[in-house]
Amino acid sequence: MVYEFRVYQLHPGRLEAFKQRFKKVTLPMFAKHGVRLVAFGECARLPEGVETQIVPGGTFTPTAQATFGHDEIAYLVSFDSVEERDRAWQAFVNDEEWIAYRQKENAAGPLVAAERFTLVQPSDFSPI
After folding, report:
1. Taking the model in full, what pTM does it have?
2. What is the per-residue pLDDT for 18?
3. Fewer CB near the last or first residue (10 Å), C or N of the chain?
4. Does domain 2-44+68-120 have CATH number 3.30.70.100?
């Protein structure tokens, strides 16, 4: 099993539009192409001045003042293998329905400003 963690920086004010697109359009397209959603959510933002504390056991950053609802989201998807992941994403990004939807939607301005991803292969002691 391989997991992919994706983070999207959205254009200002586009969070709700992205969430609606994901829920109504992206999720059905994921199902069509074998991209399995594990988790989806908004990224937290810490207020200015919150500092990471170095303690004897490592580092700690207090997050009690974190806020959500900013222009950044993250989600986790899973695949049986890296090869399956590549096939699924290739099919997804080349799907004519997806391409047409994105072209129509982007006419009003793109939702995503930047994105990054990390592939994770769980260790033998990982609960997932």
Report:
1. 0.89
2. 94
3. C
4. yes
Q: How far apart are CA 119 and CA 128, in angstroms?
A: 14
With vertex at residue 56, the alpha carbon angle to CA 50 and CA 62, rounded to the nearest 5 degrees, is: 20
Q: How far apart are CA 117 and CA 11, in angstroms?
A: 18
pLDDT of residue 32: 97
pLDDT of residue 128: 85
Tokens of 43: 């990224």
Q: Pseudo-torsion of CA 28, 71, 8, 77, nearest 10°?
A: -50
What's the pLDDT tens digit per position in 57-98?
A: 999 888 888 989 999 999 999 999 999 999 999 999 999 999
Contact 109, 6 (CB under 8 A): no
Domain boundaries, the chain: 2-44+68-120
> Tell me, what amino acid is at 94?
N
85 CB neighbour count, 10 Å cutoff:
19
Residue 10 has a CB neighbour count (10 Å cut-off) of 21
